[in-house]
Amino acid sequence: MSKEFKTYSMDIAGKTLRVDIGRVAAQANGAAFMHYGDTTVLSTITASEKPRDGIDFFPLSVEYEEKMYAVGKIPGGFNKREGKASENAVLTSRVIDRPMRPLFPKDYRNDVTLNNLVTSVDPECRPELVAMLGSAIATAISDVPFCGPCAMTQVGMIDGEFIINPSQKQWDEGDLKLTVASTSTKVIMIEAGANEIPEDKMIEAIYKAHDVNLSIIEFINKMVEEVGKPKHDYVSCAIPEELFAAMKEIVTPAEMEVAVFTDEKQVREENIRQIREKFEEAFADNEEWLALIPEALYQYQKKTVRKMILKDRKRPDGRAINQIRPLAAEVDIIPRVHGSAMFTRGQTQICDIVTLAPLSEIQKIDGLDENVVSKRYMHHYNFPSYSVGETKVSRGPGRREIGHGALAERALLPVLPSVEEFPYAIRAVSETFESNGSTSMASTCASCMSLMAAGVPLKSMVAGISCGLVTGDTDDDYVVLTDIQGLEDFFGDMDFKVTGTYKGITAIQMDIKIHGLTRPIVEEAIARTREARLFIMDGVMSSAIPAPRTHVNEFAPKIVQIKIDPDKIGEVIGQRGKTINTIIEETGVKIDIDDDGNVSVCGVEQESMDKAMNMIKMIVEPLVVGDDYKGKVVKILDCGAIVSLAPNKDGLIHISKLSDKRVAKVEDVVNVGDDVVVKVIKIDERAGRISLSLKDVENK
């Protein structure tokens, strides 16, 4: 007997979204089987019965599982099953996590897992969006405490026109990749990649998505009313007010303000360490309170910093609300690499190193998006523990590092030259030397300068900056902060990162810790970041390197490119690669050929590259009777000498054509291995014979 379940549907952007509730995964706290076009995703939420002991954060895990069967593929490699999450899966999980995390109760410590299983992919309906909506719906109808519902919408743009929830092709080829999450009243998350879109156009797109979200939230509310479970009770992990009162008697708010009011991170940390010792000594006999001191001290600092900023308009390091920390920029700080630059903003310092390579070094991608099979530009970000004065074993990049690298990569993609203009694979690596807030934006600035130093002809300079926020009790009681440092990020309500050129925005990533932003806050943050990034580009970046260098670094590989008839590709490659391998062995270069007939020759010495290029031209271009060509003697016959003009293109110099004088022996004039210049005197296409002359060459 089939299981009874409820189905709900609505139209979004001309396509039907269908949600099955109660059809599958009944043992999860909440489950939504999502259908959008032929894309299907199972979204579930589960929560532990009890809080996890000994933690001071909400343990939320978000998973986005890409199954290759969803696009009719068997995974590559020997194992033939899906391995660790792809970069796209990690980034999608982060986009789901960021808007939803603030909507769970702040004192909730139960383990919660949001899982999204992609089972089918329709290229017209992106599975990432379906998973975002599925997570929101599964959580809203579950018994897990949640201050929702929320909804997510994506916006693309082609020829200046917005497209709601674009197809994968429109998403990949358009000028905008925008994701917006909202509650019923406010925007709670923004993520964007853009092709230098003006600020006013971006704001228009954000609120177009917000309007769509409001209609989706109405749809979710209907499901909650009919099938939603009552939210379960939980053990609150809030700090007792009695503890706060006792702490204020030991260290007054004025003393705490003095402790945190400094622009030196190390000084502040030492001040807080001494205060913590006072509390530990005072509450040594109260084990319950002693265990709560770390979280209570954190909240005491947070209240102090927020009060200073919101009420007194004072920042911990003494800056004005719209003031950027001291800036410094320099290039070429690392010898022998292809490009390097360092960007410093206060106590945040990034060194970026660029490597150029042949196009054969591009990153191959095996994922659910069949339109994206490779990446030519790769940006990687590293965050070692020494950058914040800590000791921790490095275990490779985590989700945060992957996310920061992807943000800086997205920021620079719109200004990169085309493959035809610059036929290189490009990798930029941002090493965090020191961190005190917004290293991803410093990475963008450092990467831009490093690329220009490497001779990559960027279309425009790109810079990035982050704005923070402290809010009061009402919507109009707030302060937007330009260039937040770590303390203002930890204790504030927003991290609004924007990158762009002089012309417009290239990327946005907005995270908040509250239940949304009003439109005036969004508009002010976008305006502030534009003002700040122009100041950074004009102030320090242009002084360090005003424009891309006109040539690549001496240690970088040199690449020349030609286009050949695609029908000739087989002749260049030869049977089992024999021809192309012969060219590579003789010249020491690397050769890449794509299906369109683009041939790239990569080497260090120009002479070797020219030789390889001439050999390729000799293969694909017809010989002209009467023209002179370089060749090598490969065989001696009684009647003459065989000369190789190019792989698989040999000709005969008859003994009578070796010299103006009588020649008794061929070896009297040429020997095997000699480099010669010969004239083509006859081509017999039918017989495949080429007749050459040595004596008729002019200027011998």
From TrEMBL:
Example GO molecular function: RNA binding
Function comment: Involved in mRNA degradation. Catalyzes the phosphorolysis of single-stranded polyribonucleotides processively in the 3'- to 5'-direction.
Family in the record: Belongs to the polyribonucleotide nucleotidyltransferase family.
Subcellular location: Cytoplasm
Required cofactor(s): Mg(2+)
Residues annotated to bind Mg(2+): D489, D495
Gene Ontology biological process terms, A to Z: mRNA catabolic process; RNA processing
Protein name, UniProt field: Polyribonucleotide nucleotidyltransferase
Keyword Nucleotidyltransferase: yes
Catalytic activity: RNA(n+1) + phosphate = RNA(n) + a ribonucleoside 5'-diphosphate
Assigned keywords, A-Z: Cytoplasm, Magnesium, Metal-binding, Nucleotidyltransferase, RNA-binding, Transferase
SMART domains per the UniProt record, alphabetical: KH, S1
CC per GO annotation: cytosol
The enzyme's E.C. designation: 2.7.7.8
S1 motif domain boundaries: 626-695
Root EC class: transferase
UniProt-listed Pfam families: KH_1, PNPase, RNase_PH, RNase_PH_C, S1
PANTHER family recorded: POLYRIBONUCLEOTIDE NUCLEOTIDYLTRANSFERASE, POLYRIBONUCLEOTIDE NUCLEOTIDYLTRANSFERASE 1, MITOCHONDRIAL
